[in-house]
Write a structure and sequence with these properties.
This protein has 86 residues and is α+β, with helices and mostly antiparallel strands. Helix content is 34%, strand content 27%. The chain has a 4-stranded antiparallel sheet. The relative contact order is 0.27.
């Protein structure tokens, strides 16, 4: 499954969401991560995000059944491409 995760936390707490998201996904923009994830890891990520959030904060996870269903256009350097060569 392919997902996009977008988060909005208090400025001093954004590093916590980034650290959590990087365990499963690629950091592509400020407060945005994306990538392939198993259903089990997605369930774990959702639970961990829910535990992390304080009142007034939010995270949105967009789920796609496949990255082939996603029309993704990048202008400039693509952070995802860097991950494929590791």
């Amino acid at each position: 499954m392919y997902i996009v995760m977008v988060y909005d936390l208090e400025a001093e707490r954004t590093h916590k969401a980034l650290k959590l998201g990087r365990r499963y996904l690629t950091h592509v923009q400020h407060s945005v991560l994306e990538g392939e994830i198993s259903e089990g890891d997605l369930a774990t990520l959702k639970n961990e995000v829910d535990d992390l959030l304080k009142p007034g904060e939010s995270t949105i996870i967009y789920e796609l059944s496949s990255d082939t269903l996603l029309n993704r256009t990048v202008y400039g350097e693509d952070p995802i491409e860097d991950q494929r060569f590791l």
